[in-house]
Amino acid sequence: MLRIREGGLWTTVQDMGRQGYYHLGLPPSGAADKYSFIIGNLLLGNPVECAGLEMTLLGPVIEFGKKTSIALTGASVQAFINNRPLPMWEVVAVDEGDVLSFRFCKKGVKSYLCVSGGIQVPEVLGSRSTYVLSRLGGHEGRKLGVGDELMIGEPLPGAFKQIGKRVPVEFIPEWNDAKNLRVVMGISGNRISDEGIKTFLDSEWIVSAESDRVAYRYMGSSISFEEHAPPFGAGSSSSNVVDFAYPIGALMVPNEGEVIVLLNDATSGGGFVTIGTVISPDLDLIAQSRPMTRCRFLTITVDQAIQARMERKKQLMRLDEILKEQG
Amino acid sequence: MFTLPETRFDFGGDEYIYAEISRDMSAESNFKALAIVNELRERNIPGIVDIVPSNASYLVRYNPEILSPRDLLDYLKEIDITKSDPAQLNLSIRMVEIPTWYDDPISRQYSERFKNRHQEPGLSNFEFAMKANGFTDKEAFIEAHSRMPNLITMVGFLPGTAWGFPLGLAPGEIIQTPKYLSPRTHTPRQGVGIGGAFTVVYPVNGTGSYQLIGMSAVPVYDADKRLIDLEDAYFLARPGDLWKHRPIDEQEYNRIVAEVEQGTYRYHMKQIDFSPQEYVMKGKAYIQELMEGF
Hints:
Chain A: Keywords: ATP-binding, Hydrolase, Nucleotide-binding, Transferase. Chain A: It holds the Pfam family CT_A_B. Chain A: It comes from Aneurinibacillus aneurinilyticus (Bacillus aneurinolyticus). The structure holds two protein chains of two kinds. By secondary structure, chain A is an alpha+beta fold. Chain A has four helices and 20 strands. In chain A, the strands form four sheets. Chain A has a seven-stranded mixed beta barrel. The radius of gyration of chain A is 21 Å and the shape is elongated. The mean pLDDT of chain A is 94. Chain B is of the alpha+beta class. Chain B has two domains: 8-85, Gyrase A, domain 2 (2-Layer Sandwich); 92-291, Cyclophilin (Beta Barrel), CATH 2.40.100.10. Chain B has helices at 27-43, 69-82, 105-113, 125-132, 138-146, 250-262, 276-282, 284-291, and strands at 8-12, 16-20, 48-54, 57-62, 91-102, 150-156, 161-166, 191-195, 198-201, 211-216, 242-247, 269-274. In chain B, strands 5, 6, 7, 8, 9, 10, 11 and 12 form an eight-stranded mixed β-sheet that branches. At the A-B interface, strand 15, strand 18 and helix 4 of A face strand 1, strand 2, strand 3, strand 4 and strand 6 of B.
């Protein structure tokens, strides 16, 4: 069991996400930075579906109710077991009564705590991920607070043999300030003027403070719309289309001065002009970017998007092999 | 019979294909979306993760490690051409009554609170919707909004939010309003809003940009599963259902809200076999037939 002594800023139970309910408006949820989350489970020898904790900027204070093994990945943060520094990207043993605490995270936004056997909150609609807006999944559908108690799995067979396994440095992401985000253009981009598309791709965009697991907002440039009579039923603004289901990663242009990228807790549909979709591997980078981070959007084809996705998958498979060979 | 333009397809990143049936909203476009979605669901294709019908389009999420995007696109195009005839559709749906207190104090209070984001800050959302549609009489507006049922053409935004598009009306008879200039940060749970030609009932407190014209006495999302009719589903909304707003007064609103709180409320519902073909042929008369005795 994990006893939560302090909740931290925004700590939720997440896994790989919920599928098959988007037609009801239920977004996938799940870890915002899948790459870091998956590595946490790979380190422990867990199935990747095992649930862990997603922590935001300031982590919780947790007392362990039993001996197990853990791994801390994601945004770079100083953490302590009792008063002993806890290394990141490495499997560490903890004893019953040990207390894990965190300092404010230095780079990136989301850190992940995985435990052997996973966090055992009940599955809701096929996933343990928390979706706070509908109070669904995770621990009572909400972020963790003082006094919460979370069941954890029994350490898996061989769990303690994993201790000391470590991610080689070349697999550890650097949370650089400037980011390139890859986009497959399309959806209703034809409602943006040619000049607007050019400005969108040529400009540097800056993450605004109103960004979270639902959506990231970017400011810093201006995109002009095509002059069009609004479609029937859409409302009368030039940024309105007939409401439709947004892909996760959709890049919406609600007005000329703002673009919004939808993330895992997205509002699943709406009526804003959508210029394209950020590819899934790059959603991890968005989730780890702080307000004021600078970024550019690069256009790629769907074939390049699949290639980028497969490259990341191969990288994770290579890491898995390396970890299996260690110790 | 059904005359629709060719569907336009687009890739959405590495996991989605978006299909736009028409740029403008029409019931026919939505029937076509439902026909295709039903066909796709029946085929149960490994690698397809989510199938989402929406107002005049549909969205497919797939795992590109199982399905090649280009093969799936060709496959969808074929279904779009060969299996999309709404005339073949027979939908088993429900007509559900939404008791609605129009021009209520909560909607007025939210209009006031967010007036700095509104095109006409001096008017309540209800007054704005009346004006935008040329009404001066409140009762006539309520009658115009509530007389015909809305087809649930899409579910989403926040889980359980259903877009309703009125059936049996000529495009010129459909009440339409612009959305807020900038979305409200708060919207009351069970608020009834109009945006474009669509009516929604907000399932939870959250953001929103539709004009608030009333309050539904009944929930459309039941997180605690207190109501017997929502026991299996959490959500009231199902694509293809018909929702009929019934105007109620404050007294009845309070009575129904109390029943919901006690968990004794039962939705007024009727099972219907709905034929899009008959609807397109007979229009309003067909809907009136379905509404008999409801």
